[in-house]
Amino acid sequence: MSGLFLSKGLYPEDFFRATIEFLKREQQADGSIPWFEGGHADPWDHVESAMGLSIGGEYDAAERAYFWLRDSQLADGSWWAAYRNGEVDNRERRETNFVAYIATGVWHHYLISQRREFLQAMWPCVQRAINFVVGQQSPHGDINWAVDADGQSMEDALVTGCSSIYKSLECAWNISVVLGEPRDEWRAARAALGDAMRNKPERFDRTWESKARYSMDWFYPVLTGVVPPAKGSAHLQKRWGEFVEDGLGCRCVSDEPWVTVAESCELTMALLAAGDHARAVNVYSWLHQWRDGNGEYWTGYQMVEDLLWPDERPTWTAAAILLAADALTEHTPAHHLFKEVRLLEVEAELAEEAERYTSGR
């Protein structure tokens, strides 16, 4: 199917039910969600898939996914790069943006479910994870991309990874405010990271070739609020011709003839964050030609060889489809998460809590 045009209030529940059932089917008994049957799970993509379950109203399944992370968290607050069948599959490193993403997922689930007991149950896990990540922040504001097997910092920073962390710090701050334990040091860390990303480009890609050829480096700063909405449209326009293939989607890298569904979904949300609703609707409408009959979505399409490649239909791609659909249709109370920056103020949250108490809600 192609040409699915979505807008506010037009979330096609029947159409996406098969996609949600796919996520439920791939979830393991322990709560983990691998890329696909027999594949590995990594903390970032696992959270992405859990967010898809939340959008689908599968609250218990989503919470089992988060509780798996809670129960497998290492003593320092991190997770290994990958897991498979209940065992660690990659002990080479622990990536900071993977670790931070738990806060984004937990906040997303709370926004939708309003289950405060879930937020409280996950709070110690979120605290340990974010403290681990903030502990990798340099005096310049950037955050090391990983630690190695021995816990030594791998000292360089990624634009995409730090952008993701920037959003996670927003979510972590909001969780802390709602629970009455505001962590000012997290908000300060977020401010320093944003300053580094906007004003200190020399702090990124210091020890390897620039990753500017990757589309995520282009649109992630808009998606996560590093680039403010007033500048977002101009930012995206600068490299639109390098990455976007009309009628197909967004390239993963500028110099390879390969469009990918997940990146196209994230670009859709970045366009919404930049106020470019018409192009967001249009880009998203192209993506359902890459859907199979079971509601799953192929990773991407290789334009020169005219084939779907690789031969994979990942859970996180399906979840990205659901996140973009929610952003377009405003289906759930979390629809704004990747379109706006919303930092809770302590005083406002306390006033709202008092109102709930006095009204008996």
Helix content: 40-55%
The CATH architecture would be Alpha/alpha barrel
Radius of gyration, rounded?
A: 19 Å
Q: Please work out how many helical segments DSSP would assign.
A: 14
Provide the residue-averaged pLDDT.
96
Low-confidence spans: none
How many domain modules?
1
Helix and strand topology:
Layout: H1 13-26, H2 43-55, H3 59-72, E1 82-84, E2 87-90, E3 93-95, H4 96-113, H5 116-134, E4 146-148, E5 153-154, H6 159-178, H7 184-199, H8 215-223, H9 229-238, H10 240-243, E6 244-245, E7 249-251, E8 258-260, H11 261-273, H12 277-285, E9 300-302, E10 307-308, H13 315-329, H14 346-359
Antiparallel strand pairs: 1-2, 3-4, 4-5, 6-7, 7-8, 8-9, 9-10
Helix pairs in contact: 1-13, 2-3, 2-4, 2-13, 3-4, 4-5, 4-6, 5-6, 6-7, 6-8, 8-11, 11-12, 11-13
Keywords:
52% helix; 3-stranded antiparallel sheet; Glycosyltransferase; 8% strand; 361 residues; 5-stranded antiparallel sheet; alpha+beta; 14 helices
